[in-house]
Amino acid sequence: MPSPHNPLQNYLLSALPETVFKRLLPNLELVTLPLGEVLYESGGRLRHVYFPTTSIISLLYVFEDGGSAEIAVVGNEGVLGISLFMGGETTPSRAVVQSAGYGYRLKSSLMKDEFHRAGPLMHLLLRYTQALITQMSQTAVCNRHHSIEQQLCRWLLLSLDRLSSDSLTMTQELIANMLGVRREGVTQAAGKLQRAGLINYGRGRIDVLDRPGLEKAVCECYAVVKLEFDRLLTDFPHSDREQAPFRVGDAPLDSVRSTPAEAMAATQSMTSQVLQASQAQQAPPTSDVSLAKPK
Ligand SMILES: [Zn+2]
User: Fold this and answer.
1) What is the pLDDT of residues 177-229, one digit of tens each?
2) What is the distance between the alpha carbons of residues 210 and 136, in angstroms, rounded to a whole number?
3) CB–CB of 67/59 below 8 Å?
4) Are 124 and 17 in contact (CB under 8 A)?
5) pTM exceeding the 0.85 threshold for the entire prediction
6) How do residues 155-174 score in pLDDT, each as one tens digit?
7) Could you tell me the CA-to-CA distances from 155 to 117, 123, 143, 233, 258 in Å, in that order?
């Protein structure tokens, strides 16, 4: 029986030219990633980089009082461990498995060797890093300016895009930790989405019943992140493959923006506003402090 696991289930690996992929393949090690496993701690050195296939990894900042807030998610579209090839080696964030599944890991030294060839892998990873920066900036502005209900919609959609089903195994407590808000806030927001017929939740599981409805309820942040990932990754010029098995842009976004041109203009305008705001404020890239009160 053929294995249900394949490194090509990760978009970045699938977008590499055949020659590069074949060079990496013997060193890609399949790993099980159970819920809650910490893949690296704040300030820790990375022995491996991870390419998730069916799992989702959350990058969190953990506050001194034990509370936390999610900075970004990494799933089958990406790679965990950008600090390794960016040259900084460590980050202040913690990486935790948010949705159990599988992935492939590669030894840090081998990743660096391939990156320093300055070929397609380097170009692809730089594009991915730019998309990840967009996700991080958008998480910061979303946490500051949008309601918990909108943040929950954004979080659900970003998670669903990285999974093959419409269900998430996740307690409200964990969602509160991800969003950096009180649990009651999540209960209230989830209740509202359930009454609107968009989701069904209970006993550590959330089923999305009406995805287009969720896309209507979400703030603009989801589209900004999604369109930037699509723009940077799905038309990667070095790929010699006919069709990648995964596209970040599979789900329709018509309900969020009326035309692709409008959506792109909105994305560019929003991104430049985010950059201007961060240059002007020098604010820490975490959530609204007044919201971050988990005990
Ligand atoms: Zn938002």
Assistant:
1) 888 888 899 899 999 999 999 999 888 889 999 999 999 999 999 999 999 99
2) 26
3) no
4) no
5) no
6) 999 999 999 889 888 788 88
7) 36, 28, 11, 21, 22
260: CA distance to ligand 1 center in Å? 19
Residue list, CB under 5 A from ion ligand 1: 142, 146, 219, 221
CB 53 within 8 A of CB 72: no
Fold for domain 7-280?
Jelly Rolls (2.60.120)
Query: Where in the chain are the domains?
Result: 7-280
DSSP-based three-state secondary structure for 291: coil
* Rounded distance from Cα 143 to ligand 1 centre (Å): 7
Q: State the amino acid at position 157 in one-letter form.
A: L
The sheet with strand 29-33 has its strands ordered as: 29-33, 101-107, 48-52
Beta carbons of 220 and 266 less than 8 angstroms apart? yes
Cα(194) to ligand 1 centroid in Å equals 20
Q: How far apart are CA 50 and CA 119, in angstroms?
A: 20
Q: What is the distance in A from the centroid of ligand 1 to the CA of 29?
A: 36
CA angle 98, 31, 128 (to 5 degrees): 65
